């Protein structure tokens, strides 16, 4: 009987996710992952045909984490699309590495975000584009914007976009 697998696919995903969350996707290599798992690279390549396949799994997990965060931390005092956008910005600030993985990999799935609210998709897209501008300014430290100011800016943009519809 062949020996039992000691490193599971889920353990590999969890450890890779931990590395990416802490240090970014660029830090993730098969050797680095193997070192953190205290094994050779063999279990990694038995579970995944290549690192691209693992990255796809990480993107999926990061998207799910973002959606859970948006649902859990949406401000109930704001209209739903606006609350989702504010939570989206908070996620990008709190989980910079995961957001970068999602955003730069083309893994930002607007359909999933729109499923959170059955509102006008055009509005959601406008707000996401606006929010990404704020996120980039915060990420590159172009401006320090307090959350109350961000909320005011989003409310103003929301009202303007709603007038256009």
Automatic annotation (TrEMBL):
TM region(s), chain numbering: none
Source organism: Anaerocolumna jejuensis DSM 15929
Occurrences of domain HTH tetR-type (ranges): 6-66
Keyword presence, Amino-acid biosynthesis: no
Highest rank taxon of the organism: Bacteria
Keyword tags: DNA-binding
GO molecular function, a single term: DNA binding
Signal peptide: none
DNA-binding region: 29-48
Protein name: Transcriptional regulator, TetR family
Pfam families membership: TetR_N (PF00440)
């Amino acid at each position: 009987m062949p020996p039992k697998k000691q490193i599971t696919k889920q353990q590999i995903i969890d450890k890779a996710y931990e590395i990416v969350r802490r240090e970014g996707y660029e830090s993730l290599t098969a050797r680095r992952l193997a070192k953190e798992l205290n094994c050779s690279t063999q279990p990694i390549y038995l579970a995944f045909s290549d690192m691209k396949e693992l990255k796809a799994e990480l993107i999926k997990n990061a998207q799910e984490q973002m959606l859970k965060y948006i649902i859990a931390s949406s401000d109930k005092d704001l209209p739903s699309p606006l609350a989702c956008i504010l939570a989206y910005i908070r996620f990008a600030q709190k989980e910079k590495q995961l957001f970068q993985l999602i955003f730069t990999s083309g893994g930002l799935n607007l359909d999933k975000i729109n499923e959170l609210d059955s509102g006008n998709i055009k509005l959601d897209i406008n707000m996401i584009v606006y929010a990404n501008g704020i996120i980039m300014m915060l990420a590159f430290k172009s401006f320090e914007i307090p959350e109350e100011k961000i909320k005011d800016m989003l409310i103003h943009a929301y009202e303007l976009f709603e007038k256009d519809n």
